[in-house]
């Protein structure tokens, strides 16, 4: 039999006598609903441009890093107010949240869990969940993204930030 390549994991396998009867099912399940890319392309869903939040990026760049749980939650409320302005429009247009995640990063919210010695906020999951809840009040999709896929949004201080090798 010819090898079958899964479009999701990109692994090729050759069905044997036991799995050959499952091949039609795998091919049916493997039909792409959206082209696989390594970034935005003409076929990708629309996304917001991070430049829309340039003024906020600049303001957060010069503001002090939150130092206690209340300050982290207050910072999240500030970001939530910014996100609430156009959350319903973004939801209706089904835009990918590239700019919004960029705003979370520039506000420092993605570092809430990282160790302080590596440039993180040094807070626990209790504070991180409160931060996520504040964001979710304004934009439920971003709150859900933060909750179900923290590595996409939250930076745990494991990716550089002065960490020794």
From TrEMBL:
It comes from Lepraria finkii. This is Acyl-CoA dehydrogenase/oxidase N-terminal domain-containing protein. Residues 84-153 form the Acyl-CoA dehydrogenase/oxidase N-terminal domain. Pfam families: Acyl-CoA_dh_N. InterPro entries: AcylCoA_DH/ox_N, AcylCoA_DH/ox_N_sf, AcylCoA_DH/oxidase_NM_dom_sf. The lineage of its organism: Eukaryota, Fungi, Dikarya, Ascomycota, Pezizomycotina.
């Amino acid at each position: 039999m010819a090898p079958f390549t899964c479009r999701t994991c990109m692994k090729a396998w050759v069905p044997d006598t036991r799995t050959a009867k499952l091949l039609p099912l795998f091919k049916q399940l493997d039909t792409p609903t959206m082209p696989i890319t390594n970034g935005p392309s003409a076929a990708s869903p629309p996304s917001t441009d991070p430049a829309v939040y340039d003024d906020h990026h600049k303001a957060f760049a010069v503001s002090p890093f939150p130092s206690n749980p209340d300050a982290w939650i207050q910072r999240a409320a500030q970001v939530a107010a910014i996100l609430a302005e156009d959350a319903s429009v973004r939801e209706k247009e089904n835009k990918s949240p590239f700019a919004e995640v960029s705003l979370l990063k520039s506000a420092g919210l993605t570092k809430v869990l990282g160790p302080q010695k590596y440039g993180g906020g040094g807070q626990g999951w209790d504070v991180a969940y409160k931060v996520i809840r504040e964001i979710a009040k304004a934009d439920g999709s971003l709150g859900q993204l933060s909750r179900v896929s923290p590595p996409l949004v939250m930076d745990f201080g494991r990716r550089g930030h002065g960490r020794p090798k």
